[in-house]
Amino acid sequence: MQSNRSLTAIYFFSIILFTIFSFYAYFSNVKDYINDSIIAIILVSIVFFLKKHINLYNYSFILLILGLVSHLSGVFGFYSSSPLLIQYDHFTHFLGLFAVSVIFFNFFKKFFSENKINNFLILIVIFLTSLGIGSLIEETEFLGFLKFGTGEGLLKFGGLGDTPSNEGMLRDIDVLGGGWINTMWDLVYNSLGALFGVIFMYIVYIYKRKIIRN
After folding, report:
1. For 95-106, how does the pLDDT look when each residue is reduced to its tens digit (9 = 90+)?
2. 159 and which of 10, 163, 165, 172 could share a cystine (Cβ 3.0–4.6 Å)?
3. 8 A C-beta contact, residue 99 and residue 63
4. What are residue 151's phi and psi, to 5 degrees?
């Protein structure tokens, strides 16, 4: 874990950043992202105050913040018009779960040993734990849809993100599998993000151990 001072600076910067997003959402009349900004503040606060227990590093904390920023940037219309070569929704899920897997890796790496089978099983645990967070996000979206209906942001379904927000169109799309397709693609990119995160971190871990030994 890195120094409390640097982590604290990153934390307060993220609070300011998410607050700016909430104000922009309000004044641009995309107010559903105000809720998402508040959720982002709550999430980074939980991670920050658990920093000693989860072995939090500057880079992993920044990755998490970037993952949240990528979602909040949907307020600029990126979900409907991606600035990237892939669908913006795919990118946000990949980056978000990459960040989550990095955080979990740093927590579980203390259990690594010279036993390769043991390490492989721990990697599976990290991967599956990360996927659990991804599934929880999808369930949150679903429960938000049941409560608030269609619209923009995490707690609603459709709008700038998933599908058209018109209720009639949404029902037709869902009958044809649109809702399922969106959810499953989200889970696929969650899996890819978590997998790449686990593999990348383990390669770095092995490389650092070799340097220490030499």
Report:
1. 999 999 999 999
2. 165
3. yes
4. 150, -160
